[in-house]
Amino acid sequence: MELEQQRKDIVSLRVDINQTIHQIEKIRDLSVENYRMALGPFKNQFESLSPIDQQNMNPIAFQSLQNYRDIQQITDLLHQLNSSLMDVGQHLGHPIEDVPKLDNNPAPPTVV
Q: Where do the structural domains in the chain lie, given as residue ranges?
């Protein structure tokens, strides 16, 4: 029974992570919209600048871009966590296989 409960807990965590990803993606989309609105026709010019010059040219667009990048990193990490939990759930309760011993391994050298 404990094993089944652990599997259910993992599924529940994965559902929560997926919901969180969905909510975070909405925030990311708002950052993209703010970025586009702040730049208007100057997007190409802005993107050709160094980060310091971007911040000086348009602080709102610069911050929106930073928010987008940060949110994307968080989303990527949550996807990785979700994938790892799926792997754990699939392996839960399965015995760990022994590493096979190969007969063709060379013997350690001997000192004569």
A: 2-91
